[in-house]
Amino acid sequence: MGQLVQIENISKVYQQVEVLNRISLTIDKQQIIAFLGGNGVGKSTLLRIIAGIERPTSGKFTYRDKKMSIGYVPERFPKDIRFTPGEYLTYIGEISGLPERERRETIDGLMRRFKLNEYNHERVMNLSKGNIQKVGIIQGVMRKPDLLILDEPISGLDADSQQELVKLMQELKEEGTTILLTYHEADLFEKVVDVAFDLTGGRLSKKVADEKETLKKIELERIDEQVVMMWEEVRKLEKKNDSLVLHVHAKDSDTVLYRILKLNGSVRSVHYYKVQQSEEKID
Ligand SMILES: Nc1ncnc2c1ncn2[C@@H]1O[C@H](COP(=O)(O)OP(=O)(O)OP(=O)(O)O)[C@@H](O)[C@H]1O
């Protein structure tokens, strides 16, 4: 897994307000990276800087491959386009050098996938917010860029198109694309995101997913506490009157349950629970 972009000490000041404060980050190839945080913390600013649309006030960033292609989907795609979606996307495909046949097939395929083909007789300016967003998404992905930047890509999209986008992101990643994105809908993206960062006070901190975050609580009887204490899978051990409660990661629970039964212990109950994500500050 090689590096794609290197960001060093990037700061951004708007009218004396420092939105980004010396952010450093290495972005690797074939990763899906999320930048999260409240409204106005600077997520869009950071994405625009990485996309090369906006300059940082100080600091530098390096694209490892000078010929790297970037697809950028802004939070709000311009809505004053007088072309139909097909005409507009064809034009974007032409100026970015996509060969005609590939261009036609790709645009047609993506318009069908997002059910935009049904609106191809209308001008983009007359489409709904969600359909305009689809035009924005398709123009960003259609060249299969090395780096794809999605700024809150699903606001206004119907549920099917949201799922379609998540699938498409996975496909692009498998083909080598790195994806940076922001969102507020954690449930939808969590399963595809490799690394998530929180942006607060102009600084990034990495959200550390704790081994799938799911733990199991196993209550058992008839095994000695001294024995259980030796098991490396046990994260926490509690004593009740006549039983022991073990906390283990979900992935280890089969091993532990098997061991309990082999030692003629008896399992009283098994419960799942989620642990909070912890955070780790980075520079
Ligand atoms: N061109 C600009 N000129 C002046 N201030 C700006 C400009 N662009 C952004 N800002 C300010 O910088 C801060 C960060 O804005 P940004 O849009 O990057 O935040 P965000 O995290 O993407 O927010 P949201 O989740 O609401 O989209 C805000 O306070 C915003 O008002």
TrEMBL record:
GO terms for molecular function: ATP binding. Keywords: ATP-binding, Nucleotide-binding, Transport. Residues 5-226 form the ABC transporter domain. The keyword Nucleotide-binding applies. SMART domains: AAA. Pfam families: ABC_tran. It comes from the Bacteria. The keyword Nucleotide-binding applies. Gene3D superfamilies: P-loop containing nucleotide triphosphate hydrolases. This is ABC transporter ATP-binding protein.
